[in-house]
Amino acid sequence: MRIALCDDDAQENERLAKLIGIYAFARNYDLQCECFTDGRDLLRREKFDLYFLDFRMEPMDGIAVAKALKERFNQTVTICYLTNYEAAAAQIINHRIYADGFLKKPVDPELLEEKLDQFYRMSLFTRLELRQGKRYDTIYTQDLLYVEADNKQVRLHMFDRTEEYHYTLNDMAAMLGDGFFRIHRSFLVNLQHIASYDAKSVKLRNGELLPLKNRSFADAYHNYMFLMNR
User: Fold this and answer.
1) For residues 129 and 57, what is the distance between their CA atoms, to the nearest angstrom?
2) How many CA atoms within 13 Å lie on the side-chain side of 66?
3) Which residue of 25, 83, 134, 209 lies most exposed, with the fewest beta carbons within 10 A?
4) Which superfamily, per CATH, for 2-121?
5) What is the full per-residue pLDDT of the chain (230 aa) written as tens digits?
6) What's the pTM?
């Protein structure tokens, strides 16, 4: 897992990287941190699995960097703000501005562990290695909107593209786990990207509507949201 740390104070980056290293060692996770002191440098790089952004930094503040990342990667980035400003913390809590969470500086090790555990439960770090002929493709589950069955293969619909693989929908359900739900015999949906639903359909964050046939969906979705917001 690749993690970007962006704070205009290099010592804060180093401290956070050390804490994440301790967390990774305790759980035997492969977490690789890369530090940036300027958001513009971070924006020139490829996608990371997780971003920790200082809320107040120069020349680009955390909101500006987060907004640019969301636009570049079609909203499929995981961002946690870092701040020692009470007003900024309240603003993030109340409005969730381009973020998936926040931590007050200096970062408390226990709260950091809880946040990393939360991201893990949300399956935001999950990668799939799917066979495509003689090669294997890496698919990030947070990029997936839904999986569609098509005879003996499946279509993986993402924000920016669609890929086809020779798997069954049951195969995909087993690999993807609890963050995905089968709303119809032909559709497996990423619960993270649901915008709304009614008795007949599910609306995704990109505006697509999918048919809803599974009567247990509402309970499953509410349970998922409860776990994610604990």
Assistant:
1) 37
2) 25
3) 134
4) Response regulator (3.40.50.2300)
5) 789 999 999 999 999 999 999 999 998 887 899 999 999 999 999 888 889 999 888 889 888 998 899 888 766 688 899 987 766 666 665 655 667 788 888 899 999 998 888 776 654 456 788 888 888 888 888 789 999 998 889 999 998 889 999 999 999 998 888 789 999 999 999 998 999 999 999 999 899 999 999 999 999 998 888 776 55
6) 0.61
